Amino acid sequence: MTETIWTDVGALDQVPRLGARVVRTPQGCVALFRTVDDRAFALEDRCPHKGGPLSQGIVHGANVTCPLHNWVLSLETGEAQGADAGRAATFPLKVEAGRILVDLSALAGQPVLGKAS
Amino acid sequence: MHHVQKEALEAAASPAPRQRLVIVGNGMSPGRALEKLFEAAPEAYKVTIFNAEPRVNYDRIMLSPVLSGEKTFDQIVIHGDGWYVDHGVTLYKGHRVVAIDRDARTVTSEHGVVEPYDKLIIATGSTPIVLPVPGCKLAGVLTYRDLDDVTAMLLVARSRGHAVVIGGGLLGLEAAIGLREQGMEVSVVHLMPTLMERQLDTPSGLLLAQAIEARGVRVHTGANTREILGTDPGAGPSRVRAVLLDDGTELPADLVVMAVGIRPSAALARDAGLAVNRGIVVGPDMRTSDPDIFALGECAEARGQCFGLVAPLYEMAAIVAAQLAGDATAAFNPSATATKLKVTGINLFSAGDFSEGEDRQEIVLRDAARGVYRRLALKEDRLIGVVLYGDVAHGAWLFDLLKRGADISDLRETMMFGPGAAGGAPLDPTAAVAALPDDAEICGCNGVCKGKIVDTIRAKGLRSLDGVRAHTKASASCGSCTGLVEQVIKLTLGDAYEAASVQPVCGCTALGHDDVRRLIVAKALKSIPAVMQALDWTSSCGCAKCRPALNYYLLAAWPGEYQDDGQSRFINERVHANIQKDGTYSVVPRMWGGVTSAAELRAIADVVDKFAIPTVKVTGGQRIDLLGVRKAQLPAVWADLNAAGLISGAAYAKGLRTVKTCVGSDWCRFGTQDSTGLGVKLEKFLWGSWTPAKVKLAVSGCPRNCAEATCKDVGVICVDSGYDIVFAGAAGLDIKGTEALGHAETEAETIEIIAALVQLYREQGRYLERIYKWAKRVGAAAIKAQVVDDAEKRRALYDRFVVSQHFAQTDPWAERVAGKDAHEFVPIADLALAAEGRR
């Protein structure tokens, strides 16, 4: 297993409630989501269906609806909900003193994820 | 003499002359009596009704929902005009009967009509009590009794001022909540220490007071009204200004509603020499001291008691009908009645007697955190009183035990938790209904028991709630038993039951689009969380289906007031560009009426070069699409386009898209009018408006129709005499030619009609419902009637559209160039850049 490396990517307040922001990485984009009750999640910014940018979707509960074809993915597991099958990669995330820390070590050595949006 | 002649004619026409039945009063009880009478003896009587109110029979219990805006008057009419015609009933509307002549056997109305009777029913109802305090006659002091009172209250409520309701009983509280929902600041003044003390014990009365205060109504209990204060008579006609309490508190009031009780209206009967006590005295057969005269309803006093709730009044009506039909044994035996408060969201059920006494025991369940309170009063192993607050699901079952006087010794430990609890089975509501015996009453208003519903479903082959309502009257009055009735239907039919056909907005609610829109306005809900809270959304923050719909409905209902919620918009409307399959965006500037210039084209070309935009394409709506723009580039692209005077074309919006035109009379040898100019004017008038779904227009200069106006949402075909307006076309998923809307002689009239049409669509269309689907649902004729035929309605719609446009016509691109929602367009962190920097 890769070692956990926490990267400070910004303040929780910079992500709108029920919204998302993007972290650009050399391997592609990671989407940060914030729920109505201020929980935060990090997922690869790429829908398992047709590669839609999840960061552009509507956040509801602990789910996001992909803007391209309305797949609904769990922010907690990255799994597609309902009848659809597929999974977006998730990344460990914690919020400390209002800062968002993400462990992106799983990306190291990975091919490019999605296109930059 | 006239009447004798008429009588002779009638006698000659029918072999067995019918008896003449005259009814004084047209409330719910005589209405019910007639229904029963026509069932039992359809040909026995020729009926004449005198109604002091100038209208048909309506459901007085439902006035509170009319006041709160949840229902309209039409929805609470019990017998429309047609019913009276069908049954050969003569109805004098607005005729008060002033005298009964028992010797001549006639009644006389205030307008001089004299009507002879063989049998007479007095159903004069009751009058609300007005407290005789100083100032009680001031303008602005009302009672709460009939539709006129509701209309008067609604008129004052428009000013959104202060209202004081005197009386914290059932009616007073419903009035208070209704006025609050209309936007008034409301206080309730109640003489007793707790609210609704006749139906509730102290703990549930206190819980109720909390719930009422949580709705924004201030409650003053143990408060006596000393005086009603008026405005300074020097400043015009004096009207109510405040209510002064005994303790010196002064409550400001633009409206005072007295709801302190009713008094039977017995004066007419007293003047006619009939026995009158508090009400008109009747025997168990409902006959007064004159056997040919019945008294019925709130004016009657039976077994020493007057009645105000609908269930015993309907029982009286059944007895009167049976007696009139010849059943001399029919007798009125009032049974226990149950009360429910008709305030959406407050669940309250009470029945029987729950006063404390030595021979009585009680079982109480309290769950303060959940706002649950249940109290059962027992006497000698019989249930004699029930108060349920918060969760009233078992009300019907308990009430049935109470009414039957069942021996509950075996149920004593579990009955608090309902019929399912005895066997430890889960609390399936259908199981609770299945456990009810056939004679258990389901609908208290109309006295319909379970067996009657089940039998009627089987006998008539009913499949729906509406069918059951039509044939049994169950759930047709106050509607609070609707859930129970549905469960009885489900139980009887199993899978064959066709549940209500209203399609819910989404999985988060059982309400359909129309109900949600109506309640947003009726309850003055002004944010998405407020809607979800008030309408009992089942999810914490909605879903991708309901949130955009709610955002639109709120925007349409409260222009200038509602704060648009970007996070509830689809990405295209949030960032004002169209997302493409690769996550890039397309940018389409407005090109008014499809007209452009060298300067605009040059600016577009420069933007394409500067940002290396990969694809430039002409759209179907006569404008230019720039495809493949990265999100981070959008504000800079817009800044350059704005600088050349180009604004967002809203090619992404559920709103006005394009107005396609042909060149018209300026150039075309066939053109009859300036179609291009009108197209530009329409686009400049309509742009920026949000609508349920996209709206596309076209204007053609002659009937050759080069702008293809006859497959658009709205089209104009110019002709020599003016402008033919068409609408409800489609050329996408469905293909459909337009329908004629109307003809206008001037451009101004054309624009007014189209703006009114768009506004009506904005107010009635369901989210994502295109104009042609809306028109199919509500009917093109109904739309035409409002936006073309009725000039006043059209103007009102037009005015509302103009108000809304006042807040809508801001270029979203310019706002974002100036920095709005800047976070949307930049990453929160750029680790790629950091990585490059380290290299």
From TrEMBL, chain A:
GO biological process: nitrate assimilation
Superkingdom assignment: Bacteria
One Pfam family hit: Rieske
Keyword check for NAD: no
InterPro entries reported in the protein's UniProt record: Rieske-like_NirD, Rieske_2Fe-2S, Rieske_2Fe-2S_sf
Keyword DNA-binding found: no
GO molecular function, one term: metal ion binding
PROSITE patterns assigned: RIESKE
Occurrences of domain Rieske (ranges): 6-102
Keywords noted in UniProt: 2Fe-2S, Iron, Iron-sulfur, Metal-binding, Nitrate assimilation, Oxidoreductase
UniProt protein name: Assimilatory nitrite reductase (NAD(P)H) small subunit
Automatic annotation (TrEMBL), chain B:
Gene3D superfamilies reported in the protein's UniProt record: 3.30.390.30, BFD-like [2Fe-2S]-binding domain (1.10.10.1100), FAD/NAD(P)-binding domain (3.50.50.60), Sulfite Reductase Hemoprotein, domain 1 (3.30.413.10), Sulfite Reductase Hemoprotein,Domain 2 (3.90.480.10)
Biological processes annotated in GO: nitrate assimilation
MF-aspect GO terms: 2 iron, 2 sulfur cluster binding; 4 iron, 4 sulfur cluster binding; flavin adenine dinucleotide binding; heme binding; metal ion binding; NADP binding; nitrite reductase activity
NADH-rubredoxin oxidoreductase C-terminal domain residues: 338-405
Domain Nitrite/sulphite reductase 4Fe-4S: 653-793
Pathway linked to the protein: Nitrogen metabolism; nitrate reduction (assimilation)
Cofactor note: Binds 1 [4Fe-4S] cluster per subunit. Binds 1 siroheme per subunit.
Annotated Nitrite/Sulfite reductase ferredoxin-like domain residues: 580-644
Protein name in the entry: Assimilatory nitrite reductase (NAD(P)H) large subunit
